[in-house]
Amino acid sequence: MEFIRVFIKVKGIVQGVGFRPFVYNLAIENNLNGYVNNSSEGVLIDIEGNNESIEAFLNTLKVSPPPLSKIDSIEVVKLIFNNYSSFTIEKSLAQLDKITLISPDIALCKDCRKDILNKDNRRYKYPFTNCTNCGPRFSIIHNIPYDRKYTTMKNFKMCPECEKEYTSPDNRRFHAQPNACSICGPKIYVEDFKGSSLSEVDPLDFTREKLLEGYIFAIKGLTGFHLVCDGRNFASIESLRERKKRSDKPFAIMVKDLETAKSLCHISKMEEEILLSKERPILLLNIKDTCPLPSNIAPYQKTLGIMLPYTPFQELLFKDNLDVLIMTSANLSGLPLEYTNEKAKENLKDIVDYFLFHNRDIYIPLDDSVGKVLDDKFMLIRRARGYVPAPIKYTINNNILAAGSNMKNTFSIAKEDFIFVSQHTGDLQNIETLNHYKWNIDHFKKVFLFNPEIIAYDMHPNYLSSEFALEGYEGVKRFPVQHHHAHIVSSMVENNIDEPVLGIAYDGTGYGDDGKLWGGEILYSTLKDYKRLAHLEYIKMPGGEKAILEPWRMAVSYIYKYVSNSNNVLEALYDSNYKVIIKMLQANINSPETSSIGRLFDAVSSIIGIRNNISYEGQASIELESTIQKINDDTYGYELIESNPCQIINPEKLINELVQDKLNNKSKSYMACKFHNTVVNFTVELIEIFSKATGINKICLGGGVFQNSYLLLKLKKELEHHEFDVYTNSLIPINDGGISLGQLVIAEKSLLKVK
Q1: CA–CA separation, 147 vs 722, rounded Å?
Q2: Considering only Cβ atoms within 10 Å of each terminal Cβ, which end of the chain, N or C, has fewer?
Q3: What would the pLDDT profile of 461-492 be if each residue is shown by its tens digit?
Q4: What is the DSSP letter of 240?
Q5: From CA 310, how far away is CA 280, in angstroms rounded?
Q6: pLDDT of residue 722
């Protein structure tokens, strides 16, 4: 039997996930000697023994690693035999300028759940129970390496029993940096909205009791605060809407368990797996007709955003009659998520009755991730907790920072062979959100040892993200990227496509290279450049951004442009209110031109009587889709006009026929479905034309309009029926949350250099 020594380098997410104790126990099991340690590059294993045992060791390492790890590569090199006498875990090594991959924050595991529910366990009902398979990671890290002293747990000295667990390689809490118990760890406590401490009450029992009585709480969670009330109490939900000034936007809910979720919504096997996954996102699910929940949770919607408990104290909060909770991100409108106790007290005191605090700091706040399943494929709409900062493996030759878009902002950085897409920042509309954005960029720079050589940014001159890119750094190359090209390249990158594609970019807005606002685009796209092949005919937006908040303005603009007896129609639909809009259009006052499909959706929503004014982004379009109750195959007319340099989609027939249907009292459902079908028809027709001209069969979709499930599924089905290969984003948002990824790769390909 041959005895050999091998040196193994494991790269990927292999720190803070129980990898070293796994390796230690695997080595002992196979009678192997040597050592294992962490380095900035990954986990290093120097091991020796008989060749059969080493082969068994390597096989288990590859096929059955720890559940939270994600191995990117395993390198094995033979060395001269060293006669190690035992197997040990050595001190971590830091290597200058090498990336350490960090695990996202992970939901409570089954073993820890058993611990907190077992009366005989010392962690019974302890709200901060965790192990190497679950708990906080990214949100508590100040710096690397991932050691307790560099996390927000540094202020909690472990008691002897926790210390014993932490230092025992055969324990699942070995080197679990947030390890703690009720004796030595963080605590929860309650205060009222005036700041008075309720130290005499049991925090969880009191919170449950008051929630059932109809009170509203701000609860500090794993990665930020939630606003919480009883999800079965109409009056409580209404009160929360009034206090938060959130009239219509749907609330997410957290439910006690999977069975409760199944009683409310239709849930497929795949959706069930996602709800129970270690990431535990909010999942958009189709509501059952028998759902007994109050209608004011998700007004005018056919879906509910549901998540299951992902922390110990969320698990402990549900009991008896409390099985459904409104669980929405705690922030004032337009401001970042609250995550510090003092700021939460200051900013939320007029919204909540009580605070459920804890004294473990959150260093990096993250919203809950949001996704849905379409056509047996999971699509993230908001990427944050549970997914960030897991990287995309992609060969990059430059250190690039991509600033992202202004709405649903994320930024991205690239170093070595990784792209890191940040968590959802929100809309960059004020100084508070901008400062939060800058702070997150600085944190990514610190933990990933990153300094940008290039900054990619959106072409829009008034985006705060673009202003930051142009002013934020000295001595770096700046590279502007067209918004819709970035959408398509984002889809290309996620689907590993490096050949030319036809891109369909449908969204609300994006600055075009002609200085107008785009959003209904067919593009020829490579990873480096693009050509605009077709677009929706330009239409004026009376009032500029005000037309986004008041979709009836877009309806007036479309009717005025395309309907011959427009005054009569407008009088019938909008009384005399339309006249001031007509004057703006005639004088061309603050009426920029747009080719946006999103604005067409808004106009149609208003014309058929669904939504004239909105209280949250995309409301008119979202409710237009939700109006479809009965499917029909009818379509409106349209015209494709040959023009130089690209074809024009003329919706004149569409608008006239829609208006006629409205005046003939056709149902809203019928008109909404007919309109969606029309968008699919002209899109497929254009793709067929350009595919014949270019020989391209791969089609990539991008833009926020494709969050519309009916449109996306029908368009995908029709394109595939015509034998096209159709690609969309999945784990990177198809909306503006994916823009930074596209920006980064376009800059890389355009400025490629070999190091």
Answers
A1: 55
A2: C
A3: 899 999 999 987 888 999 999 999 999 999 99
A4: H
A5: 6
A6: 97
Task: Among 324, 347, 370, give the residue marking a domain's end.
Answer: 370
**Does 436 fall in a domain?**
no
Q: What's the number of domains the chain is made of? A: 2
Least Cα distance to 223 among 329, 109, 347, 130 occurs for: 329
Burial label for 716, CB within 10 Å (0-12, 13-18, 19+), is buried
For residue 754, the model assigns a pLDDT of 41
Read off the amino acid at residue 25.
N
Q: Please write the tens of the pLDDT for every residue from 294-332.
A: 999 999 999 999 999 999 999 999 988 899 999 999 998
Over residues 706-731, the pLDDT tens digits come to 999 999 999 999 999 999 999 999 99
pTM of the model: 0.94
Distance CA 400, CA 455 (A): 6
Reported confidence tier of residue 175, pLDDT bands at 50, 70, 90: confident
Task: Provide the residue range defining the domain that includes 33.
Answer: 3-89
Question: Cα angle at 289 between 285 and 292, to 5 degrees?
Answer: 90
- Torsion angle of C-alpha atoms 207, 213, 215, 217, degrees rounded to 10: 20
Is 327 domain-assigned? yes
Residue with tokens 């649903």: 408
The confidence score (pLDDT) of residue 41 equals 76
- Give every CB contact of residue 124 below 8 A, 6+ residues apart in sequence: 115, 116, 117, 118
Phi-psi category of residue 18: left, alpha or beta, with phi > 0 → left and psi -120 to 50 → alpha: left
Spatial neighbors of 636 by CB under 8 A, at least 6 apart, are 653, 654, 657, 658, 674, 675, 678
What does the CA dihedral 460, 461, 467, 471 come to, rounded to 10 degrees?
A: 120
Q: Tell me the two tokens of residue 230.
A: 């009883």
CA 133 – CA 114 distance, rounded (Å): 14
CATH code at position 226: 3.90.870.40
Which CATH number fits the domain that encloses residue 69?
3.30.70.100
CB 297 within 8 A of CB 304: yes
Residues 210 and 354: their CA atoms lie apart, in Å, by 9
Using CA atoms, how far apart are residues 124 and 113, in angstroms rounded to an integer?
Answer: 9
Do 203 and 351 have their domain in common?
yes
The answer to whether residues 307 and 193 belong to one domain is: yes
Tokens of 229: 């009330």
pLDDT digits (tens, 9 = 90+) for 591-604: 999 999 999 999 99
The pair phi, psi for residue 696, each rounded to 5°, is -90, 135
97-133 residue pLDDT tens: 677 788 999 999 999 999 999 999 999 999 999 999 9
Measured in whole angstroms, how far is the alpha carbon of residue 684 from the centre of its chain? 29
In this structure, the answer to whether residues 195 and 62 fall within a common structural domain is no
Residue 689, Cβ neighbours under 10 Å: how many?
15
Mind listing the pLDDT tens digit for each residue in 533-552? 999 999 999 999 999 999 99
Residues whose CB is less than 8 angstroms from the CB of residue 710 and which lie 6 or more positions away in sequence, other chains included? 625, 628, 673, 676
β-pairing verdict for 252-255 and 303-307 = parallel
